[in-house]
Amino acid sequence: MIMKITDTQNGSRKLAGNRPFLSTRDTGGVQARGISRAEALSDRNRSQHQELEAVRHEYAKVQQALYEAAQVQRRLCSPRELVWGEYEVAGEIFPVRHLSGDFFKVLQLGDVLGLALGDIAGKGLSAGIWQAHVMDLLQRCSRTYFHPTEVVGAVNRELCLNQSEPPITALFFARLDPERNELVYCNAGLPAPLLLRRNKLVERLDEGGPMLGALQQATYRSGSVYLDPGDMLLAYSDGLTECRNPQDEEFEIGRLSAAAESVSGATANQVLFSTLATVLDFADSCPPGDDLSLLVIRRCAVGLTERTSERSKNISVPRSRSRSTVRPRQVTNSG
Predict the structure, then answer these.
(1) CB 157 within 8 A of CB 216
(2) Do residues 85 and 30 share a domain?
(3) 264: which of 14, 198, 253, 291 lies 20 to 30 Å off by Cα?
(4) What pLDDT, on a 0 to 100 scale, did the predictor assign at position 176?
(5) In 3-state terms, the chain is what percent helix, strand and coil (to 5)?
(6) CB 300 within 8 A of CB 229
(7) DSSP state of 44
(8) Is 34 a member of any domain?
C-alpha cells in the first residue's frame, strides 16, 4: 500500500513537472513583475514623447531661422521695383526651398544704373549662404571698376583666389546710361537675356564668357545695345525656361518671349508678374525643380506725365525733371 501511494505521488510530481503549480506567493511575484513592466513601458513612452516634442521644437526653430534668412535675402535683392527717369525696373525670385541661390541687384553707380542677375549652382541652404558673399563681391567690384567686363572678371578672380571650392555662378551684369540710353553688358554663363523691341524684333544678349568660379584666368567680352522707347529687357535664370509641365515639356524661350510680348504695353512690374504667372500656370501641378528669377527693364514709350495714371497707386513717378538729375526711387515692396 505504501508503495502504491509512493507511485501515485511520483506520478503527481511528473504531472507537476509538465504543468507547474503556482503558489500564492509566486502569483503575487508575477503580478508584481507585470506592474513593473507596465510602468517601465509607460516611462519609455513618456520619454519618447518628450524626445519627439523636443525634436519638433528644434525643427520649428530651424524653420523659423530659415524663414528669417529668406526675408534677409529678399531685402538684399532690392529694390524690387524702381523708377529711373524714363526707365522702370522690376525683379522677383521664387525659391524652390526657403533660401535661393538666385539673386538680382539694382545699384546706383553715379549717373548710371548697375543691373545684375545671378544664379549660384545648387539649391537651398548652401547656395543661399553663398549668395550673400557673391552679392557683396559684386557690389564692391562694381564700385571699383567701371566696365562690366572688368567687374565680372574681378568677381571671378576673387571667387577663385579666396576659395578652395568656389561656388560656380552664372552672372549677367550691365550698366545702363540713361543719358545715352545705352546698356553695356557682360553675360557670364546665364541664359542670354531677351531684348524685346517695340517693333516685335527679339535680340539675345549673349556676349560674355564662362561662369564665375570655374577658371581664374577667364576672359570676358562685352556687348552693348541702345534702348528705344517701348523696348523691354528680360533677364532670367534657367529655372524659369526649364520649368516643366505635366507632359514633361519645358517652358522654353519662345513661350517666355510670347508671354512678355502679350503685355508689352504694361509697366515693368505688370510684365514681371504676368510673365511669372504664365510660367506657373504652364507648370500646373508640377512643382518647379529650380529657383525662378526674372528681372524686367523697360524704357517707357510715353512721357512720365502721360503715364502717371497707369502706374500703381503705391508708385510715385518724378515729374518735370531732366533725366540727368533724376535719381532712382525705391518703391515700398510688399515682401
Answers:
(1) yes
(2) no
(3) 291
(4) 97
(5) 45, 20, 35
(6) yes
(7) H
(8) yes
Average pLDDT of 8-30? Answer: 47
Does some domain include residue 14? Answer: no
Region for 223 from its dihedrals, namely left if φ exceeds 0, alpha if ψ lies in -120 to 50, beta otherwise? beta
Lowest mean pLDDT among 67-71, 107-111, 129-133, 283-287: 67-71
Tell me, what amino acid is at 212?
Answer: L
Q: Let me know whether 55 and 133 are in one domain.
A: no
Answer whether residue 100 is part of any domain. Answer: yes
- Give the pTM: 0.73
CB atoms within 10 A of CB 231: 23
Q: What are phi and psi of 208, to 5 degrees?
A: 170, -115
Strand 102-109, strand 329-330: pairing: unpaired
Q: How far is CA 175 from the centre of its chain?
A: 24
**Three-class HEC string of 276-320:** HHHHHHHHCCCCCCCCEEEEEEEECCCCHHHHHHHCCCCCCCCCC
Number of structural domains (the chain) is 2
Does the residue 94 lie in any domain? Answer: yes
The verdict on 44 and 102 lying in the same domain is no
Same structural domain for residues 232 and 264? Answer: yes
Any idea what the CATH number is for the domain that residue 268 is in? 3.60.40.10
> Among residues 202, 230, 241, which one has the least CA distance to residue 297?
230
Rounded Cα distance between 215 and 219, Å, is: 9
Q: For residue 203, is it left (φ>0), alpha (ψ between -120 and 50) or beta? A: beta
Q: Is the pLDDT of residue 77 over 80?
A: no
Closest CA to 193 of 149, 166, 219, 225: 225
Residue 40's domain spans which residues?
A: 25-76
